[in-house]
Amino acid sequence: MRICKSRAVRAVTAAVAVGLIATGCGSDRGKDDAKGDKDTFVFAGAGDPGSLDPALAADGETYRVTRQAFEPLLEHESGGSKLVGGLAESWESNDAGTVWTFNLRKGVKFHDGETFNAAAVCANYEHWFNWTGTYQSSAVSYYWQSIMGGFKKNEDPETPKPNYKSCTAKDEHTAVIEVNEASANLPGGFSLQALSIHSPKAIKEYEKQEASAKGDAITYPKYSQEAGTVAGTGPYKIKEWNKGNKEVTLERFDDYWGEKAKVKNLVIRTIDTTEGRRQALQAGDIDGYDLVAPADVKTLEEAGFQVPTRDVFNILYLGMTQEASPALKKPEVRQAIAHSIDRENMVKTQLPEGGKVATQFMPHTVEGHSDKVKTYAFDTNKAKQLLKDAGESGLKIDFCYPTEVTRPYMPAPQDMFELMKADLEKAGVTVTPKPMKWAPDYLDAVETGSCALHMLGWTGDFNDGYNFIGTWFSKYDKQWGFKDDTVFNAVNAASKETEPAQRIEAYKKANEIIMEYLPGLPVSSSPPAIAFAKNVNPPKVSPLTQENFAEASFK
User: Fold this and answer.
1) Residue 150: Cβ-neighbour burial (10 angstroms; 0-12, 13-18, 19+)
2) What is the DSSP track for 426-490?
3) Across the strands, what pairs with 265?
4) Pick from 130, 160, 131: nearest CA to 147
């Protein structure tokens, strides 16, 4: 998902200003019901949501909130990455992978009382397909464009051609979605929060409002910035977004089609430092929080807190932007940088137990991971020799890194930067640090190709290799600043293969070609930890960071 990785977060501004952080106050946490049980579960995330409409977002902190209230056609099994039915009980495609038929659940209601059916599914897909104006900005509709291409009427000639063709309500409980070409993004894309289904009645209200842009700054429509209009089908409905206290309050939806939420009220609060989140849990102000600092895991466990670790499903990489530094166009220089970094030391000192050195641009848990890729072991002397051979012994290079952020693959960005800087300098590279605030400054700089070296990563949206390597290497991308048809063709060939076993083999081949070319350095994969209070029965933790808080309860 893209805040780890986020074009969509760049330069996006809320319609209402956000107030100061409030830790341990401002919610109704701790109220008891008639049985003496707590009726409010409070969870702390690392950042503010950007929108209450998941279709307008591409970041994990927004989806942490919206996932409790909105559901897509497909889901991932609780605690895993296997695709299972969501609002569709079952699904199938034709042999060409261009016609997808969904058999929908019956008896499902939206939060506003509307009935869920095939017409509602098509109303959503046609709504996104017909977006105009600022809604066509990749910063607003990143996932629609990523999965389905462009729009019915593309207003920007650089917008990709739409792959989406149509949606038909075959009958009340059967929706048929057609695309122009088979894609590795399907069926996984049908599981994305950004493609969750909204009430058609709510959509009519959405369409009365416009997103707006002034320069690079984008302002979301009013409906997406305050509770009251959005309506999904999930186990919770959104009740309030208190920006002053940096928290969203959700209330159990008693007409939910599945198992009802175990706790009546859910509060998602922003506490943007790892220390602040830990202290709030220790003080009893919250019931759980995400992205536990590796150094805090043992401390919390010894105190009796629960600190489950998710399975590995992410990648951290050192990006190299060739157009930002001519030296990086030389393969020997990219190889020298790769050999100079002691990734094993970074894993041991910076990541939780279970972290691994990455050998390619996807974690080992994703099918298509190859054991035949070219590897680049830590070797300072070899790095020096490669720089000498390239005529770059006195290489000077800018290195951007983010501040004020914690990501699942990058627990302590500045500490990780300092380790890489020291390794590069031992190899004779002079590093100029370029610290930048995460959003929008850092993400803008990376996406526009302004940083010669940078740190970034990705947490998978669904379990397909294209969701990793296709994100970066299917075509020219300013972040990398190179054009190599051998790389692009290998990635795209894999994406168009409809037979699963052959597609996996094609991904392996693509990984081997990518690592031979070496556009950047895959650094590590990390199992991010999440913490809960002693009196909590936690939800199943997800490798995709897709926890369902309706599963949580108090002991």
Assistant:
1) buried
2) HTTPEEEEEEEEIIIIIHHHHHTT--SEEEEEEE-SSS-TIIIIIHHHSS--TTT----HHHHHH
3) 40, 251
4) 160
In angstroms, rounded to a whole number, what is the distance separating the alpha carbons of residues 150 and 129? 7
**Residue carrying structure tokens 């493609």:** 195
Distance of CA 316 to the CA centre of its chain: 13
Asked if the model's pLDDT at residue 549 lies above 70, the reply is: yes
3-class DSSP state for residue 142? helix
118 close to 104: Cβ distance less than 8 angstroms = yes
Please count the CA atoms within 13 angstroms of the CA of 516 that sit on its side-chain side: 12
Contact between residue 11 and residue 440 where contact means Cβ atoms under 8 Å apart:
yes
Instruction: Report the candidate in 91, 196, 186 with the shortest Cα–Cα distance to residue 148.
Output: 186
Structure tokens that stand for 144 in this block: 């629609």
Instruction: Calculate ∠ Cα 113-114-119, nearest 5°.
Output: 165
End-to-end CA distance of the chain: 32
**In terms of DSSP bridges, do strands 12-13 and 217-219 run parallel, antiparallel, or are they unpaired?**
parallel
pLDDT tens digit string along 437-450?
Answer: 887 789 889 988 99
At position 172, the amino acid (one-letter code) is: E
- How far apart CA 424 and CA 334 sit, in angstroms, is 12
What is the model's pLDDT at position 456?
96
Q: Determine the Cα–Cα distance for residues 513 and 468; give it in Å rounded to an integer.
A: 15
Question: Which pTM was predicted?
Answer: 0.86
C-alpha closest to that of 199 among 289, 304, 295, 127: 127
User: DSSP states of 355-376 as a string?
Assistant: -EE-SSSS-TTSTT--S-S---
